[in-house]
Amino acid sequence: MSSPDVTGSSRPAGWGLAAKLFTTLVLLGAIAVLVTGVLGYFRARDALEKAVFDQLTAARQTKARQVETYFRTIKAELRLLATSKMVVDATREFRIAVDQLDRAGAPPELRQKVGDWYAENFIPGMTRTLGRQPALSDYLPVGGAPYYLQYHYIVENPNPAERRKLLDDAGDGSEYSRLHAIYHPLMRAAATTVGFFDFMIADPKSGRLIYTVEKEVDFTTSLQLGPYRRTNVAAAVARCSQIADPSAICLEDFASYAPSGGAPIAFMGAPVIDQGVVIGVLVAQLSNDEIDNVVTGNRRWRQEGFGDTGEAYLVGPDYLVRSAPRAFYENRENYFAELKSVGASDEEIVDIQRYGTPVLHQRIDTKATQAALSGVEGTGEIIGYRGVPTLASWGPLAIPGVNWALVAKIDSAEAFAPIAQLRRDLLLVGGLALLVVGATAAWLSRALLGPLRDLTAGVKRFSAGDYAVSVPVRTRDEIGELCSAFNGMVEDLHQKNVVIENKNRENEQLLLNVLPAPIANRLRAGEERIADGFAEVTVAFADLVGFTALTSGMPPHDVVTFLNGLFTRFDVAANDLGIEKIKTVGDAYMAVCGLPVPVANHAERMVRMAIRMVHITREHAMEHNVSMKVRVGVNSGPVVAGVIGKSKYIYDLWGDTVNLASRMESGGIPDSVQVTRPVYEQLKDQFVFEPRGAIEVKGKGKVEAWVLRF
């Protein structure tokens, strides 16, 4: 017994699409575990990310308060010291003592010893800092007091450089040394107690540092003259010297300071006021270590919740750090290797090693520092200064006198470590779920997706232009009905597409009959205002002589037929010569050569067109047994061309060139071609012209004209 035909009616009804979808949904229920796992993973990641950002923001805000509190504290302590009787008396008495030493002068042999000390101990260090050897005279003290005091407290100081401050009395018997023995132990103790690296007293009148705790080479030197006049300490002294306010504080950001070997130093000054007059400025040299201790929490990153890679750091407006990053303290070898890997120069690394701090030498220019220095708080995942993905919280600091930002960060890898195990577990579950999906997909490809693939292929072929496509109808369910409907739709669309294509061709031809092809293309591309200038084209006007009288007694249909036959022959000639017909007005014909596509021999082409129009007119008149002639005017020059109108487009020309061409026609001789000088000059070697002399042209006066002989 033979099998029933697969397309015949003897085949039982196929399995319905509803039943297939039901079975599919049951199978997809097994995949829900995978979907739930993926959603759970991302939600866990988002929740952890939010928790990390919240923790970083809290840590940053805490650090910001700590740094701001530190600066408020040292400002208050500096103001308190500046207003104390000890500092006021010391300032007044040191000024007098320094003036006495200035008047006494310094012996030549003493000056020589100071100069030798500078040459041996200071200039080599400055050479390393500057990269060149400076002139010794640029850094030597000026005046008797600076030489005298630097000799006794620096050159002859029995202590090493880092312990010069331990010398209370130089033993030279001077009034300055007597005062120094009284006040120096107190000032030294105050600097140590408050946490300042150095205390200085500046005389606003002379600009000298008349006292310092550390006795570096700036001791008794001028901040108004010489090499230190542009330093940040000079700026702090200059500002505070003008403010007779006991509450005033002048803070200057970190900058390289030559007396400290070029190390980065920040200064804070307060005016010393006696009876309402500023008699001095008390200057504190801020300690990098103290600021680092505040920002790093005394190097207790893990105890403060920063984990293994988290940290906080300060950045100034130049994107250079104002506190050392964590890696600088924990693993310097790795720190320098990472700096080099992200593009730090060898010079920057050498400077960090030389000064023992990355302050003013490590640049951190990231999305976080850019936003924070512009005054914006925020959080986000960025590429950190080590070149690795980082979660960060950033914001500005409220410290008057400086524009600093604080960033708290932790590596993304560490922040998301807790969900690594969850990801591995989900991958295992997902693998099992994918096995189920694979088995289901194999069944669906046979039972359900086969016809859909045929239908999809048919749609693609149809969209590619195959209007004869037909898909097989393999089932009698809803998909089979869809395939049948598709085949019918394709046939219907094919018929409609044929009609549309015919209409498009007609419309295209109509548009090209109205406008030049390049202009039509620009309009189709969406260009609304088309106006172009052309430096050199040739315009021709032709007008039929006696046409009105000739056609006055003719029926309208015959008039149109006669004129259409003539102008159609003009159009053929224009097309042959590459000339653009512009318009016809009554029995006048206007054309141009050289636009919208420029051509080099536009004048020659137009003159040949004019000759052909004369011949065509003669032939047409003979064929119709009428008496009719044509005048042609030709001119070359610049024009403006464009499309005008909205509902009925027209491509037209404007300019003196057009007007003069029209006048050449209206003032011409019947059955001839009249041209202007520009045309004559271009073609006088190719054609025979007869000068007509100057003719009267409306709006132009007398204009030279030539008649073409042919």
From TrEMBL:
Q: Which SUPFAM superfamilies match?
A: HAMP domain-like, Nucleotide cyclase
In terms of domain of life, where is this protein from? Bacteria
Q: What is its main location?
A: membrane
List the keywords (alphabetical).
Lyase, Membrane, Nucleotide-binding, Transmembrane, Transmembrane helix
Please report the stretch or stretches of sequence annotated as the HAMP domain: 446-498
Annotated protein name in UniProt:
Adenylate/guanylate cyclase domain-containing protein
The reply on keyword Transmembrane helix is yes
Q: Name one Pfam family in it.
A: Guanylate_cyc
Query: So what family is this one in?
Result: Belongs to the adenylyl cyclase class-4/guanylyl cyclase family.
